[in-house]
Write a structure and sequence with these properties.
Blueprint lengths: L1 E2 L5 E2 L14 E3 L2 H7 L5 E5 L5 H10 L3 E6 L2 H10 L6 E5 L2 H5 L7 E6 L5 H14 E12 L14 H12 L1 E7 L6 E7 L2
Parallel strand pairs: 3-9, 4-5, 4-7, 5-6, 7-8
Antiparallel strand pairs: 1-2, 8-10, 9-10
Helix pairs in contact: 1-2, 5-6
Length: 193
Amino acid sequence: MNKMSDGKFWSGSKLLDKKHLQNCKVIPHRFYILDLLPKNSICAELGVSVGDFSKEILTRSDPKQLYLIESKSELVDKLSYRFRENEEILVECGYSWDVLNNFKDDFFDWVYIDSDHSYDSTKLELEILHKKVKEGGYILLHDYIWIDYISEKYKSYGVIKAVNEFCVNFNYEFIYISMEPNMYHTVCLRKLI
């Protein structure tokens, strides 16, 4: 780490300013962030896996439409079957950036990202969502952490770097951050007014 002239420490990621954090509230768990999002919204989840968090979105957020975007076709089939009776759920197969580009600009009220956690993918998803999420809408990202310390490979994550750069470059602020027991935090971003 490098010590900055004002006594702050910098770890190689863009340094957030006070304006990026002044309205941020700490929430005990990512589920509670869902309780705070607008009801009857058009939203998406990127990187769905088997759909357990999707179920929480349905229960807590009561969306008008929920797009589940998953790149693994075997999971898409399972998701389609699992949510076959939910008319508000639409399952899409493909890489998030390809699928997102099929939506018109200002389409989503909010989007939840839990995809591959690499810097390049997260950066690209955020830049696309800057156009696809409505003014005043939200972008949420899970696993705001440097490294996956639970897996045996200790995979490095690029979420923090991509999020911080995005906030600085595109003028977004943190609205919520969850203080997860396992420290795999979720952040909720909104464009600064």
